Amino acid sequence: MKLDTDAILWSAPERERADRPLLVLLHGYGSHEGDLFGLSPRLPLGPVIASLRAPIVENGGNAWFSRQDSPTGNPDPERVDPIATQIIDWLDTLEYTSVGLLGFSQGAAVALQLLRHAPDRFAATVALSGFITRGTHAGDAELARTKPPVFWGRGTDDPLFPPFVAENLYAWLPEHSTPTINTYEGLGHGVSEQELTDVNAFLRNHLN
Questions:
Q1: pLDDT interval class at 88 (50, 70, 90)
Q2: Which of 11, 18, 147, 160 could cross-link 49 (Cys pair, CB 3.0–4.6 Å)?
Q3: Is residue 45 packed enough to be buried (19+ CB in 10 Å), middle (13-18) or exposed (0-12)?
């Protein structure tokens, strides 16, 4: 399992990436790097966008960690930590003024795990239709102290996760972040127009 940096979709050529904020997109299970990248026109223009491809081929697309050995919406951190470490190593090779994360579903779980690995690194974290790994993490104490901004959005009609997924994040987020929690009536496992508007405003406020 290795992050393919050659597969990354960028919103700007290399010569135009330095001295700008960076927004990293992390797609959902069974998807690909082009999925969330299609939302780029609806996101702030200031940050450079880098859309990553998950390294595991599964379910007709790509996965950050296999669902074959991970409970739905409640994975062991050991399943998510390897790719989180690789993404942090990749970030260490780049130049940017600040960095934010935007993940959907399984990608949101990776985004939150990245935040736990590097509590002081990310200016803004967006978790859409996402969940968090079980248990505690070494970075949780620092997050509880600094409480970085996190946007969590979900639909009331999301069929893919049981109720405990939301309950876990409702309990964890206020203790470990400064959360913006939005619930969208009638939304399933997807992203609505209103949610995109709210995400745009959140990123404009925190990633600059």
A1: very high
A2: 11
A3: exposed
Q: Where exactly are the structural domains of the chain?
A: 5-206
Count of beta carbons in the 10 Å neighbourhood of residue 145: 10
Q: Is 125 helix (H, G, I), strand (E, B) or coil?
A: strand
Question: What pLDDT, in 10s, does the model give residues 147-171?
Answer: 999 999 999 999 987 888 889 999 9
Task: Please compute Rg for the chain using Cα positions.
Answer: 16
CA dihedral 78, 145, 124, 133 (to 10 degrees): 20
Residue with tokens 């960095």: 99
What is the Cβ-side half-sphere exposure of residue 171, based on CA atoms within 13 angstroms?
10
The contacts of residue 67 (CB under 8 Å, 6+ apart) are 29, 58, 59
Which fold does the domain 5-206 belong to in CATH?
Rossmann fold (3.40.50)
